Amino acid sequence: ALKQKGRDGWQFFNDYQHHQALQRLNVTLGLRLAIEREELEARFQPIVSSDRSRIVGAELLLRWFPPQGEVSPGIFIPIAEMSGAILPIGLWVFREGCRAEVEWRRRWGAHAPYVSINLSARQLTDESLLDEMRRVLMETAADPTRITLEVTETALMADIDANIRMLRRLTDMGLRLAVDDFGTGYSSLAQLTRLPVDILKIDRAFVDGIETHHESRTVVRAVISLGRSLGLQLVAEGVETQGQHLELMSGGCDLFQGYLFHAPMKPKELILAVNEQLRQLTEREQDQNEEC
Ligand code: C2E
Ligand code: MG
Ligand code: MG
Ligand code: MG
User: Fold this and answer.
1) For residue 268, is pLDDT > 90?
2) What is the pLDDT of residues 117-172, one digit of tens each?
3) Which of 173, 188, 259, 290 is at a distance of 20 to 30 A from 283, taking alpha carbons?
4) Can you give the residue ranges of the EAL domain (predicted)?
């Protein structure tokens, strides 16, 4: 296989590059048909509060099952961003998220978890994004104030001036904004205050090192106090151990997401989990009333 190498002419692909190029091509072609072939599925990972680990929200995480077997989002999302397939896919994801919001609110009213939806940088530069999202919100009758959009810190800072305008329009629609993977980019405090942000999600890499690395612990504590002083909610992602949970709580973190609490689950499983939790809460309340 050949690839063009600047002005100097041509150079042969090595095996690894060849494999990567083939994979990219396969994924690009496959993704174009993924929606109509109904190969996409939503999973939801609960976000819990420090009050008895109650499920207060859930992040929608996309799964793709082409005929040859599951491909992870770590592989197909970057390729979808390059090829532009992320635009129709992102809209499909947004619609799924809106449907979930409506269904959960119908089931649980004020106890319904909020829905968190990932938005890629490529979507933010799309002229038609706002109209399309507005239309989906109307068609599904979803409540935008119960939907949070997650944009990674790196994506936000890539073109901050253009992004600010777009994000303001989205938050004007009532949607809430979370900065995803916070701590991995290099944003300054001044830049952060220019964005209409409601939530900071502390990246898994920092949570991971919190018990073993003094630096991670310092960064996490600083991010939490920074976030709090700006009036933001803090979500720690990738919480896997009780030790991490305790350290994050003592640092002042409000919300947690990770395998320690729940892995991403199918929509039906999420409904069972929330039902079970509400049942336990009412039981506890009844017990307390009897004691009085
Ligand atoms: P993210 O938005 O930071 O999502 C968190 C990722 O961490 C998810 O990986 C989740 O399954 C994983 N995770 C959660 N708890 C734990 C834990 O305790 N330990 C470990 N090791 N991992 C944990 P997933 O589902 O593979 O998604 C990877 C990334 O793909 C996401 O990172 C997000 O950037 C992207 N992605 C997923 N779905 C979508 C989507 O619908 N749209 C866009 N634009 N990106 C998406
Ligand atoms: Mg996310
Ligand atoms: Mg994240
Ligand atoms: Mg992350």
Assistant:
1) yes
2) 999 999 999 989 999 999 999 999 999 999 999 999 989 888 888 899 999 999 99
3) 259
4) 24-278
What is the CA(203)–ligand 4 centre distance, in A?
5
50 phi, psi to nearest 5 deg: -75, -15
Q: Evaluate: CB of 259 within 6 angstroms of ligand 1.
A: yes
Burial of 44 (0-12, 13-18, 19+ CB in 10 A): buried
- Ligand 1 touching residue 197 (CB < 6 A): no
Contacts of 229 (CB under 8 A, 6+ apart): none
User: Would you say the CB of residue 39 lies under 6 angstroms from ligand 1?
Assistant: no
E strand or H helix at 180: strand 176-182
Q: Which of 39, 53, 61 to mutate to test the pocket of ligand 1 (most atoms within 8 A of CB)?
A: 61
Residue 10, pLDDT score: 54
Q: Which two tokens stand for residue 162?
A: 């253009």
Indicate whether residue 238 lines ligand 1 (CB < 6 A).
Answer: yes
